[in-house]
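Weekly puzzle thread! Below is a chain. First person to post its structure in token form gets bragging rights.
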Amino acid sequence: MTVLQKIVEHKKKEIAERESLVPIKLLEQSIYMETPVVSLRKYLLREDKWGIIAEFKRRSPSKGDINTHASVEQVSIGYMQAGASALSVLTDEHFFGGKNADLTEARKFNFCPILRKDFIISEYQILEARAIGADAILLIAECLERKEVARLAKFAKSLGLEVLFELHSKHEIPKINEHIDVVGVNNRNLKTFEVNFQNSIDILPYLPQDMVRISESGISEPSSILELREAGFQGFLIGETFMKTAEPHKACRAFIRQIEVAGLW
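Winning reply:
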């Protein structure tokens, strides 16, 4: 069984438990259910930003502990002050050390798009995302069949949420549908968790050109942003590069300043 399969199997059990503890009617009472969504798509296209989605995560199955004591308040505010276009918050607890409260705390201190980064396989999780203050959700091609992607994306849009659809292979492109707002290429193979930066470059020509396109994972140098931008990508999800430092927000600020100094935009 691959790491991804283990995550999905655990997620099924987790969802069943959550549904029994926090029923849908309770989620629907959240103050965030009626709060206007901040558009991830629009922020990625802003000319005064660099399209960087800065991620908050404490650990990963491939790297183990990354930054277990980081402050959501300090890091998320710092990311936005550094010039990030959006935030991504890992909410998976068992494998990534995250929690829903992390996203809600980031929401409390920031007016910007916040992506709920998790392994979403059910409508309940999408309702949960809206209830904790997310603006967008992640759907992963490797986890879902084509009909499931369509159903879940449509449901997300009915709640006002935007959808980032993540793929790793051009063979997953047919799963893209009209309810997707942003399509991302993950340079990390979710079966082996190995990273290949070239994956984004190879897949880009096959992506719908009318969609906002982002590259995810393995981006550690400002020069990589230049290469990806010139290729046609409009956004870049970066987490580990920042989070592995003692002060992730300062690492983000230094990274963006290097882009500015190098004149990459």
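Puzzle host: Confirmed. Bonus trivia for everyone else. The beta strands are 52-56, 59-60, 64-65, 86-90, 114-117, 136-140, 162-167, 182-186, 212-216, 235-238.
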